[in-house]
Amino acid sequence: MPNSRPMARAALAAAALALGLLTAPAASAAPAGTGTAVPTAAYTVTARTDTYVHAGPSGSSPRRGLLRAGHAYAADCWLMGEAVTADGRTSAVWVHVLGDRDTAAGFVDVVFLLGDDRAGLPASAGC
Q: Tens digit of pLDDT per residue, the chain (127 long)?
């Protein structure tokens, strides 16, 4: 009867390799050579009105782009900043929107976005 140990070892090694591939962490979406992960959007927000995107959570912060009313934008978190009043609403919550082909990433106060007091982002999505 042939020795079945080499076959058993090969099968065990193949199973271990397959298990390792299945449990390995996913690779980050970093552009080659940058060492920096590309941000991913976990949420979508919709602009209530045309509004500026700011570099920081303040209306006096430099403008980085413009959101268009009714358009959806990718967002990843929210934070507290300068209070803004517009259209009978007041809020100090600012949402960080990710840039797209028309605007750079930055912050928009939720008074200019549709949704609740965090524009639909959960409390756990703080920046």
A: 555 555 444 444 444 444 443 333 333 343 444 333 445 668 999 999 999 999 999 999 999 999 999 999 999 999 999 999 998 999 999 999 998 888 899 999 999 999 999 999 999 999 9
How far, in Å, are 6, 7, 10, 13, 50 from residue 3 at the CA level? Answer: 7, 8, 13, 17, 76
Please name the residue that has the structure tokens 């009714």. Answer: 70
C-alpha–C-alpha distance, residues 36 and 76, integer Å: 17
CATH of 43-125, one of 3.30.1490, 1.20.120, 2.30.30, 3.40.50: 2.30.30
